[in-house]
Amino acid sequence: MSLETDLFSHLRPSEQALTAYGFRKTDDEYLLERAFMGGKFRAVITVHPDGTVSGKVMDTELDEEYIQVHVPGAIGNFAAAVKEAYIAILEDTAKHCFYSVPFASDQANRISEQIFELWHDRPEYTFQDKNYAVFRHQDNEKWYALFMQVDADRIRAGASGQIDVVNLKMPDEQIEALQSISGIYPAWHMNRKHWITVVMDDTLDDAEIMDLLKTSHELTAGRKAGSVHGVWLVPANPSYYDVPAAFKREHGTIRWKQSTDVHVGDIVYMYMGSPYSAIIYRTECVETDIPYHFQNDQVKMRKLMKLKLLHEYRPDEFPFSLLKEYGVRA
To answer: If we measure between CA atoms, which residue out of 233, 140, 113 comes closest to residue 122?
Structure first.
């Protein structure tokens, strides 16, 4: 890994700050040239369109690159002094022109933000190595995702550089099939019978990774010993919302107001008001605590849950008259 990659891997450039700092734009890149050590050397720093940074040091007298700054283990007091001065320029550039992001790859950062939007979890750096971060449940503290930046050849034979990956727990019976998909590999540094490693370099799109992540989240959630999934009954007013059309439009999974402590896996029955006046749908909650702010004269919502249709009943199977016999009141 180069000096520049090591320093800027978790940073992203601000175009406005680059210009203010003295970078000039050439085509799609930004270029900075800065003399140092009494004008004997010139740092040439390039910010590329993808946000990566490269650099070199030029010997102004010889008009050639001074490669010692990029040679690992280069010896000599003078070479060390040049390297130290160059690193100081890089660090000052990072301080004034870049902002910090949790992970090196753009996809890893996007997935991290979606995790926060979904479950309000932020990465925890439980290891001394900043390239390893975990996402865990807030109640049982179990991990459901381990983000890592590793040497690419540890995941893909013959690959070079480094790559962001995430370890996810999957049903044992699906592990082998999942590993046949491009971008999914046997788990790195975890039990391969239960976990997989997914590369976050856009081989899989965000939605595909989030689907896998939701499975891992559910498998690691767990409940207290002896507990069972909850069962809920929620009302729906056809005058305000066309539930049948919504299920059809959204391919059997809809978002619904969440006002109770529903958990993923709970069964939710939907009672439809007039003209049905009966339980019409049995659904399973597949996602909870989705932030949503809406209010009108009829309803006030702060969060939603996602319901997957399991069964549709006839109106005469569970009418309100039958529900009253079992103690259900309006």
So the answer is: 113
Domain final position from 157, 188, 221 = 221
Residue by residue, DSSP assigns 62-131 as TTEE-GGGGSTT--SHHHHHHHHHHHHHHHHHHHHHEEE-SSSSHHHHHHHHHHHHHH----B--SSSTT
Nearest to 124 by CA among 115, 113, 133: 133
Record the tokens describing residue 249, joined without a space. Answer: 């439009």
Say if 33 falls within a structural domain: yes
Supply the pTM of this predicted model.
0.58
Domain ranges, residue 88: 3-100
Of 77, 210, 226, 79, the closest CA to residue 145 belongs to: 210
Same domain, 214 and 129: yes
Q: What is the CATH number of the domain that holds 137?
A: 3.90.1150.30
Which pairs from 65-73 meet CB under 8 Å and 24+ separation? 66/41, 69/3, 70/2, 70/3
Q: Where do we find the tokens 């790195």?
A: 188
For 297, list phi and psi in degrees, rounded to 5: -70, -20
Count how many domains the chain has.
3
Domain identity same for 154 and 239: no
- What pLDDT digit, counting tens, does each position of 29-60 carry? 999 999 999 999 999 999 999 899 999 999 99
User: Do 114 and 206 form a contact (C-beta atoms < 8 A)?
Assistant: yes
- Give the tens place of pLDDT for each residue, 159-210: 988 999 999 999 999 999 999 999 999 999 899 999 999 999 999 999 999 9
Element (H, E) at 49: none
330 within a domain of the structure (yes/no):
no
Amino acid at 271: Y
CB 8 within 8 A of CB 94: yes
Tell me which residue of 176, 2, 19, 17 sits closest to 98, measured CA to CA.
17
Q: What is the CA radius of gyration of the chain?
A: 28
